[in-house]
Fold:
Amino acid sequence: MNKIVQVELVDVRSMHGLIWANMMLEAGWVLLSVNSLSLLLGAERGIADEYEELREKRDSL
Structure:
């Protein structure tokens, strides 16, 4: 069984936050919880290891 090793809270009140959450989900992150203003996403080890690359991709947009 794989374990979640990293979690991130993403504020989705803005388009920037929605795009970031979508990028994370497309990269394999798992949706753990939802409320009206934020998403809690989690990643297993292999996906979490690529987090910095994903952030660099986001920052280049």
